[in-house]
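Data deposition worksheet. Section B asks for the primary sequence of the deposited chain exactly as it was used as input, without tags or linkers unless they were present during the calculation. Section C holds the resulting structure in token form. Section D is free text for depositor observations; keep each observation to a single sentence. Incomplete worksheets are returned to the depositor.
Section A, Depositor: J.P.
Section B:
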Amino acid sequence: MHVISVNTGRATVVEYTDAAGGLTGIGKRPVPGPVRVFAPGPKGTAASGVEGDDVCDLRHHGGDHQAVYAYAREDLDWWEAELGRELPAGIFGENLTTSGLDLSGALLGDRWRVGADLVLEVASARIPCRTFQGALGEEGWVKRFTRAARPGAYLRVIQEGRVSPGDAVEVIHRPDHDVTVDLWFRAFTTERALLPRTLAAGGAMAPQGHETVRAYVEKYGDRPGGDGGSNRK
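Section C:
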């Protein structure tokens, strides 16, 4: 398990984003290491946790629980076959392109040691947006990405450090629950009835996620089935 590529992006003006000023940093490119990785601060006021990486829409991106975005090379390869086009590292807006890691099967709260001293914790899955669709240039991309359920993982920084291409990734902690990235993604997109189950992740889940679950439980209760489980985009 290792990092293939470290990717950062600078703010660029585009037509396909709702962010203020029409700016987005989704267009990321590989950079040589070492690159400093740190806890950026609360969502809404803080941006990326990767030095040299711009986040422009602070309403929906950035902050401690979205400090780093990782996507597996294996999933990019799968999408290459589906789309019939080359997908270089960083094209999905990921900061870390990984090899040998099952990101969909990772548990919220899993901790990884990356390289010598960086420690990251799995926090949630990536939910696709209009900016992602515009950057990739694939019609109906939001729905297609959601159906495929290969979302990649957002990570928070437990111990600041530096990352370089080729750094080994070691899983150093696994929590005692069953809330995987895949389950979290389905709960917050297509199978809303799963939302109460995500509370087992505890503090590994962002406060905004807990607020969403509380609102759901207040409306539907916490029994399996809830509202029928559908929220397809």
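Section D:
DSSP finds five helices and twelve strands in the chain.
The mean pLDDT is 92.
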